[in-house]
């Protein structure tokens, strides 16, 4: 196995874990609505999840390990990606903030500040800031 194959394999595994974690959040109430399904479809495409893998993960998302981001900067990067997806395409319509709150909690943000973090993230994404600006603003929002 070449080094590039190892990297690709690890990357795909991380994406599957990330996607399965989001599926778990979407299924937390026992079902997914049409907007959540459309979001999951788009997310699977962006994470390069094949149709077969998609079906397997939806059938049992607990078969895949969660690769929770350890560093705060990694959580912000994932939040940035997710916020851009739901905000730009409006796949979740009026429930975009609710879904992002659930995902924010799953990423490790605390219940006490998740509402503030999501509101700030959506505000920054609405302004079409880049990742560096987003990260800086999120890290310094209380200053």
UniProtKB/TrEMBL annotation:
Protein name: TerB family tellurite resistance protein
Pfam families per record: TerB
Domain Co-chaperone DjlA N-terminal, first and last residues per copy: 21-57
